[in-house]
Write a structure and sequence with these properties.
This protein is α/β, with parallel strands linked by helices. 35% of the residues lie in helices and 17% in strands. The protein contains 15 helices and 14 strands. The strands form 3 sheets. Strands 1, 2, 3, 4, 5 and 6 form a 6-stranded antiparallel beta sheet that branches. Strands 7-8-9-10 form a 4-stranded parallel beta sheet. Strands 12-11-13-14 form a 4-stranded parallel beta sheet, with helices on both faces.
């Protein structure tokens, strides 16, 4: 029987109070063997639990626990318990394959783990999903599942994922639908492969899974300068982005008219590349895939305008403000600039400069703020910052590794601050946070 070592116990948690210590082994909860973190998360959610634990001296303890539904037991997991399942595909569009050598090791991990789909919102291809794992998803009602679909054409999906077993995607979708497992789908669009008529067919197929498939996002392939030795693919330009939006909008409008929800949504990048207007927040039906870059700008603009109305009267009475610089990617530069110009009309005394960063690290095809590097910021802004006498520089938090102050190339906010001789601040990607920094209210 598999036993998982408890690496740590949170202070004052239930298990801490029951004298469970690091090194003890968690065997089962309510008679079910704990295989990994997913078992633990689901089984410990009950109000009444029976835990089987092997103590350090080999003694077996059975602990009867009554708790609230949302109350954690306090277990910290060992690496073995949360080891990530890696991808078995060799996708032609994989961005990890386009990373340069010498970056931190964790960036090169290709996860394709159904547990992370639930726990962290990652998207999975389903190509390494075993029958037992599929049955566990259904048994535990793990949902919504976030699925990388890309195309419903079996032969094309095998080609794009470079995996001869990747063509049965519709079988998985049908199994999830039959068992009422809700899903979100993602399509990474590659010109000449799954765009155009192939996209039309894929969206037509996926419409048949609504409402079990709650939403589908369409995002453009990202192409870095580091594709040496990889299959040649093209990116999207203004014209091809406009054609893609037309396809998506047709299905979106049809679904909205019939069901009251648009179902399929283009990522913000497509609107920016097409030089099209960013939709209103209502277009996104509650932003089901905002973490996937779908509706981020609409939500940002809405919260920005709301905060501007909320704070401008008090701010307009002030006569001086800090000299602030704002970092953004090339794609969103015009969008951010217009918001700042609007703010200057309402509060003329603010002193803000927006700095677009060209992505020399990954290449000009990569223009989003989430992939800005510290090296590019230093190279492009060191002189400009000095000449403009900026006091602080705001960096969107999506450029930082989750939960850290570390950029993609391992520059920290502190090292940036030292190099630029000013305060560098990570700011949440929402409009109110930016307004508050500009008017120095937090």
């Amino acid at each position: 029987m598999k036993k998982f070592i408890i690496e740590g116990v949170l202070e004052n948690s239930i298990l801490d109070q029951m004298e469970i210590v690091p090194g003890d082994k968690l065997i089962s909860i309510n008679g079910t063997t704990i295989i990994d973190v997913l078992d633990y998360r689901y089984l410990m959610a009950d109000e009444e639990l029976l835990l089987e634990i092997e103590k350090l001296d080999g003694e077996i303890w059975e602990l009867e626990i009554e708790k609230d539904l949302d109350e954690d037991l306090g277990v910290l997991f060992s690496e073995e318990m949360i080891q990530t399942k890696t991808c078995k595909n060799n996708c032609i569009f994989c961005f990890i394959d386009q990373l340069p050598k010498g970056m931190r090791e964790s960036l090169y991990v290709k996860d394709d783990d159904e547990r992370l789909s639930f726990l962290t919102g990652n998207y999975i291809t389903m190509t390494n999903l075993s029958t037992a794992e599929m049955e566990r998803i259904i048994r535990y009602r793990i949902m919504p599942m976030n699925l990388s679909i890309h195309t419903t054409n079996p032969a094309l999906r095998c080609e794009m994922l470079n995996n001869r077993f990747a063509g049965n995607v519709l079988d998985y979708l049908e199994a999830f639908k039959t068992n009422n497992i809700q899903m979100n789908g993602q399509i990474v669009l590659v010109p000449g492969y799954n765009d155009g008529e192939e996209l039309v067919k894929t969206l037509e197929d996926l419409k048949g899974f609504y409402p079990t498939i709650q939403s589908v996002s369409v995002v453009p392939v990202g192409i870095s300068r580091h594709r040496q030795g990889l299959q040649k693919i093209e990116g999207f330009d203004q014209a091809s982005s406009q054609r893609t939006l037309k396809i998506i909008e047709k299905v979106h409008n049809e679904m909205e008219e019939i069901y009251g929800e648009g179902f399929v949504y283009a990522s913000d990048e497509f609107f920016l590349k097409a030089k099209a207007l960013i939709p209103e927040p209502s277009y996104y039906d509650g932003f089901p895939q905002i973490e996937n870059g779908v509706g981020t700008l609409a939500d940002f603009k809405d919260s920005f305008n709301t905060a501007l109305e909320k704070y401008y009267k008090a701010a307009s009475k002030k006569t001086s403000f800090p000299k602030i610089g704002i970092v953004t990617g090339m794609a969103a530069y015009e969008f951010i600039l217009k918001l700042i110009e609007k703010t200057k009309k309402r509060i003329p005394a603010i002193d803000v400069i927006v700095y677009p960063i060209e992505n020399d690290f990954f290449g000009e095809e990569i223009s989003i703020s989430g992939l800005i590097t510290g090296h590019d910021i230093i190279e492009q802004l060191k002189t400009k910052i000095k000449e403009s006498s900026r006091e602080s520089l705001l960096i969107p938090e999506n450029a930082l590794r989750s939960g850290t102050k570390l950029l993609l190339d391992d520059w920290t906010l502190e090292t940036l601050s030292n190099a630029l001789n000013l305060k560098v601040i990570g700011v949440p990607v929402n409009g109110e946070s930016l307004i508050l920094k500009i008017i120095s209210e937090e």
